[in-house]
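pasting input
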Amino acid sequence: MAFFQDPPRIGNQYDDDPMLSSFLARSLPAAELAAIEPELRELGELSGGHFRQLQLADLDNEPVLTQWDPWGRRIDHIELSPLWKEAATLASKHGLVAAGYDRALGPRSRLHQFAMVHIIGPSLDVYSCPLAMTDGAARTLLDSGNQALIERALPHLLSRDPATAWTSGQWMTERTGGSDVGLSETVARQDADGTWRLSGTKWFTSATTAEIALTLARPTGNPDGSRGLALFYVPVRDDAGALSPGISVNRLKDKLGTRKVPTAELTLDSTPAILVGSDSDGVRAITPMLSITRTWNAVSSASGMRRALALARDYAGRRKAFGALLRDKPLHADTLAGLEAEYAGAFLLAFRAATVLGKVERGAADEHEERLLRALTPIAKLTTAKQAVACASEAIESCGGAGYVNDTGLPRLLADAQVLPIWEGTTNVLSLDTLRALGKGGAIEAVVADARAHLAQVKDGGLTAAAGAARDALDHAVGWAGGAMGEPERLEAGARRVAMTLGRSLELAYLCAHAQWCLDRSRGGYAAAAARRFARHGVDLVDDLSRADTLALMR
Ligand code: MFK
């Protein structure tokens, strides 16, 4: 009989995750975990079952933009893929945004929220994008103190009723740049009656099916640069779903991945908007959005790694080559084990950022956590995003040719992962942001204190070398950055190596602490093995590379 390969399958994505349940058991009081666990298990079942099947059935569907109706009216209607429509209902019913603002779990509400996102996100075809923006918009409006906008939008942004739930877009990127936002060309003019109107082009707008958006524009007469920009709230659609006056969708972007996300290019022509706060310093005003979406990015990186590994592991148990299952081949097992260690580190860094975010938001952070968060957010985003791409690449390779064939769905893992180091700030922009954050009073000390506090928990002799590697790499990065402070070119050239070393040292420190906790409770040796393996992958990337060689290579 002819041979046909069984495709990879995945099970309950809560129960099958080697990190999530132990991390939650360590982070939440038992009663709180017991209260949320049934929902996590339900989402785990949906993620590995219904939504996974839907995702495969939905592979070829993409959002479709219809610019004109049959009678010649400009409508710019965007029809979403079937999975995205179901994802919207699921997201509001389970409060994938609202849970982060729940009072019931206090500072641990972010853990509940991001645990759900981690479990279900990889099956929702990057519906996490509009959810992240919605969360970021809610945080930004709350921080702005604009009571009228808070009362108008928050009940919708945090709604658990699909009939009343809104999502928000974020329109920052223009043709002049996605990184150097201060170059934005969109202008804001005020009518005699006080109405603000925006005119310009937004080059990449997140999910353009949103009901509102936060964006930046330069009020006429303001100076060039980022300080001359102001933050605006745009009502994107009316109650019937029609676009607001002066918004045209020029086209949807033809992207490598995130194919279900209706990322659009927009023209704004005297589009009515509401000033959120002051009529300048818009970049500073929108930074809460950046912090929240970067945390989502880190969690999505970890969950993307989990999904890639779930598929690769299952495949290794179904695929035979050279007389044995792949999982029983020493080299194949060695390769996947290395990825597991990277996943465990990425998971803990992303969830440490989520934990500290929740504490800071609820005023429950200690002094060092307050300062830690500003640096931890870019470090977590940039470190985990690179790990996610590397992991997705290896995972599809581990499925051989099937991993490269589109209708298996496997190549999507890599295409969707590749956006993670790009959007919400590239690796280099975030490396510079990390340096900027470390330059603020007490941030370096807070990072060091956090790593040391975790490393101090290690007692097991089998973790000593790994803990030492984390400590040495951290000391080297901090020492090097301190030494280069007076040499801006050297500091900038080395910024990525410093930031990645901080990220990897923190991951290893968190891994060591988690491993010790698991060993103390006889919860298995996965985390300890991950710590030991991770330490051997290279943690300290700091180096002084020759500027002359860089110039020679860049001629
Ligand atoms: C790709 C395919 C799929 C596309 C999907 C659609 C996606 C669409 C959505 C997007 O557009 S994603 C792209 C999102 N864009 C970014 O993440 C921007 C990346 N660039 C940066 O992060 C730059 O570092 C930044 C724009 C913030 C630099 O701005 P500035 O104004 O030139 O820098 P400056 O003067 O240092 O910062 C202004 C203020 O903000 C300062 O505060 P003060 O005024 O009090 O001094 C900074 O300290 C503060 N600030 C900057 N970054 C911060 C921050 N505060 C807190 N957290 C931060 N991260």
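fyi The first strand starts at residue 64 and ends at 68.
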